[in-house]
Amino acid sequence: MxxxxxxxxxCLFLATTCFAQDTPVDGVYERVSLTNLTSGExxxxxxxxxxxxxxxxxxxxxxxxxxPKLERGQRLDEMPADEQIAHMKSxxxxxxxxxxxxxxxxxxxxxxNLSENPQEVGTISRLPYELRDENLVIHFGLxxxxxxxxxxxxxx
Length: 156
Known about the structure:
Blueprint: H1 2-16, E1 27-36, E2 48-54, E3 57-63, H2 81-91, E4 94-104, E5 107-111, E6 114-115, E7 124-132, E8 135-141, E9 147-154
Antiparallel strand pairs: 1-2, 1-9, 2-3, 3-4, 4-5, 4-6, 5-7, 7-8, 8-9
């Protein structure tokens, strides 16, 4: 599934190379932090992430690199049901989506064509952003009135 998603992103990038305009946020970024500005708490500080923006498209994925892995020769379907469920829950703790992106003034507009969450497919997010010292800083809020700052470092 990940290979299909990656192939889709590559095809989209190649297909739009001649038509898309560069934006000030084009590049490859690694996740630095996700901070709840309301409480000051950092969410999942061990989480790793990669975001690629270019040619009018973006692809973003974050995941915990410390999630449990099956040992060589171990099969998920041979584990007890409760261990299978725990293992799969740890693997589902990820965030990933991709699609067209627009940059308007100080706002990123993500059009989610693909997402790990099927309910997000076809949705649009308008996210205030700023470029700060080679970092892409994205701001957003949640329904519970919390404010968040998501920092991504540009990879050179």
